[in-house]
Write a structure and sequence with these properties.
The complex is a heterodimer of chains A (155) and B (501). Chain A has five helices and no strands. With 155 residues, chain A is mostly helical. Chain A folds into two domains: 6-67; 76-152, no CATH class. In chain A, helix 1 (6-28) runs antiparallel to helix 2 (40-67) and helix 4 (101-115) runs antiparallel to helix 5 (122-142). The longest helix of chain A has 28 residues, at 40-67. Chain B is mainly α and 501 residues long. Chain B has one domain. Helices cover 75% and strands 1% of the residues of chain B. Chain B has helices spanning 3-14, 17-35, 41-53, 57-82, 93-102, 106-139, 144-161, 166-180, 206-225, 243-265, 270-285, 298-313, 315-321, 327-338, 345-350, 352-373, 377-384, 388-407, 410-428, 433-456, 463-466, 468-483, 487-500, and strands at residues 183-184, 191-192. In chain B, strands 1-2 form a two-stranded antiparallel ribbon. The termini of chain B are far apart. Classes of the chains: A mainly alpha (155), B mainly alpha (501). The interface between A and B is large, with 61 and 54 residues.
Amino acid sequence: MIKIQYDRVGGVIWMVLGIALGIGSLRLGLGSLHKPGPGFMPFLTGVLLGSLGLLLAFLNTRKRSEEKGGKKVSLRQFWGKGVYSLAISFLYAFFLDPLGFIVATFLLIFSLLKIMGTRKWFTPILISFLTVALSYFIFDVWLRIDFPKGILRIR
Amino acid sequence: MGFWDCLALGWNVASNVNNLIYCFIGVFMGTLIGVLPGIGPPGAIALLLPVSFGISPVSAIIMLAGIYYGASYGGSTTSILVNIPGESCSVVTCLDGYQMARQGRAGPALGISAFGSFIAGTLGVIFLMLLATPLSTVALRFGPPEYVALMVLGLTIVTYLAHGSMIKAIIMALFGIALSQIGTDLITGHLRFTLGVMELEDGIRLVPLVMGLFGIGEVLTSMEESGDVDILKTKIKGLLPNWKDWRDSIGAILRGTFLGFFLGILPGGGAVLSSFLSYGVEKRISKHPEKFGTGVIEGVAAPESANNSATAGAFIPLFTLGIPSNAVMALLLGALMIHGLQPGPMLLRQHPEVFWGAVVSMYIGNAMLLVLNLPLIGLWVKVLKIPPRILFPFIFFFCILGAYSEHNSVFDVCVMLVFGLIGYLFRKFKYEPAPLVLAFILTPMLENALRQSLIISEGSFSIFLNRPIAAVALVVALLLLLSSFLPHLKRRREVIAELEE
């Protein structure tokens, strides 16, 4: 198992972000102290962020060599349910307009319940149906939030 | 208007049937999300924001505030019964609360935490009432330089109070500042860092950011630990603490209340910090410190009182200065501004009904919470039994709804999901989101006040040193920053971080 020194990687990421912010701000124009331009504040932020990223990466290298190896952070569980749930939610956002609130929400709740490990079929279908009905009445009818109508032509 | 007139006005507003109903909805939702792991007060308030658009500003504040202080009641239930804190401010309650439950004393533990919360909540509201008016009078004399200095101090305190690495906390604050710069620069009209995305021209919105970081981020983290919740199979009986319990804990409750309220005024983790500190204080002054952690009632009473009065203290900066001290207060600020009200020193003069109505509703809400949390404890235990495989999809769905409904925007849903992933990674690699959120909220206000100050002083930074309040605040901020790098304090931070794990 490859042990990644997470804080060092983190430090490098912040450093890169800081540099990118700095370069972007230079393009916007820094202005002067008396009349700061649009890039003034982001430039300062970028410089500080980059320097602290460097510090984090550097401090961490020193500490790690003293302690021999950091605590392992496991992302394994996340790659299962977490990634699927996020992906389904992104798909929901993407298909909300064409499918409409009712159909898309039904599919969302159903898929999320299945991802989380509900074995049977009837329970998730029932729960999804009830959720759609209830949220439709609360958010659409009562609170008048304008949801996309989609293929069912009702909203 | 005198104090009693104000109180009478507040009572008139808060006892209106509509407002009573909204207060109940708020404290009920608060207890519910306090009990449920995976969604905290910021997420729940963001979700109910659309409801608040359609009702009067007073009702909106009453309801949203109810969620906030209600959550700290609910959080203790899970700490005591399951050894899993429902909210971060109930972490310490686990230590002695769960041990009490294992010894068959779940009843008195739940009882004293509810009564302690009630006493602390009520006293906290009284402090809030007594302090808000004089403080807002002082705040009226503040100009832009004072505001700049206070906001800088606020940001410094949040990073200082953040757990673990100070460098990471400052990085989080800087990241928050960077995020808030995305969009149109209000002074020059230039687009900054929008990457050609039209939706980003208005900037990133607070609600999707908060729901992502605190809602989705937390669920993704909880997914790793999900197994069904193992509730202690003990009969909950004798919720009323006996005479000895009261004698042991009344001092702890009162000390917790004072400590909690004044720490609650500090930006960031006031409620969390105060619960830890009050536990530490009780242990230190106790005659039997070795018994702490084995189920002593003071160990439940002190932190639960402290975290409740801290929620009252957190309203002070919002109502007197118009500066939010945490994500929840920022959402309340947003809710007030949608109704055209500007929180700050003028609010108490121009719209006394909003402040006094909200404050009096907190007394009523605290009484409602006592009823909700003691006789109805069985209901919350049932809620605890909802398996995560059913619960998590709903939290996902609620977050999506909350992000979408503010502006009917699919783009906001995507922003929320991206921040959900970021929030998950932050938790994983020990970055605390609180400084990020506060920096994100304060930066536009700070930038504005900074530019105004420089206009007043014709470009000279000496204005911050010539005004005594601003100078003191900036010096304190600088000392705090420097002190965190002292070896002695640095070591202490590391010890606390280890203890929390």
